[in-house]
Each structure stands twice: as structure tokens, then as C-alpha cells.
Amino acid sequence: MDKDALIAAARHAATAAYAPYSNYHVGAALAFADGSIVTGSNVENASYGLTLCAETVAVGKAMADGKRGGLQAVAVIGGKAGYVGAGDPVTPCGRCRQMLNEVAQLGNTDPLVWCVGESEVLELRLSELLPRAFGPGALE
Ligand code: THU
To answer: What is the pTM of this model?
Structure first.
């Protein structure tokens, strides 16, 4: 998995963020075992609480494309408009960790999550971000 390419895809995805309320633009990129990359950006709403995070949008796109596993790596980048990638690394919110876990657990992978910041890129396993996760396996 090409880390720089995945981060570049996430950065590009952030350019499509619809975030007129927070002005905080986020891009996420998911890398799959078949070589494909699925991206997402945050989608806000005038009813603020309905906002969809970039990672959740990416998971939704991937599932709608038929993905049911094979998730190998994730890159997340964000920042105020014009400053995407500046500042501290962006880590996925709790809901997004759970959304990512669904695809990961379906394919029995524990993807790397690259959280991009200005001076460092955190590299974490999803299992570190969401230990003892509840997932589809629990319902078997
Ligand atoms: N956001 C994401 O897209 N992903 C995260 O993991 C954290 C937050 C978005 C939601 C909202 O549009 C903006 O960032 C500010 O919270």
C-alpha cells in the first residue's frame, strides 16, 4: 500500500468537502486489497446534527460499490478551509471508527489508519483506535 498516494487521495477528497457551517474540511481515503481506493469528504447539513463525516461517506460509497472486506488502510486529513493538513493529526471520530470497523471485520482485516498532521502522520491500527469493537461477528 502506497502511503503517500493514499494520503494524496484523502487530501484531494477534502477539496470536495461540503462544510459551510464548521468550515472544517475533511478527506478520507480507503485502500482495498483489490487495489482500489474509495474516498469521501464531510457533508454537512443545515440541520447541523445530520452531518456526515468524511470516513462515514467513504464507507457508504465503498459499501454501495459492493465492498464487503479487504480494507487494508485508511488515510484521514482535515483542517479549516485553506489549511487542510496543517495542525495536529486528525483522528476519526467515534462513529467513524465504528463505521470503518464494519468493513474491516467483514473481511477480517485490521487496517492501518494514517492520521495526517502538519509535522507527523500517526500510524495506528483500527483495533488501537477501537479496541474490543462490536461488529458483525457478534451477531453470528
Ligand atoms: N469530521 C469528519 O469528517 N471526520 C471526523 O472524523 C471528525 C469530524 C467533520 C464533521 C464536521 O463536518 C467537521 O468535521 C467538524 O466537526
So the answer is: 0.97
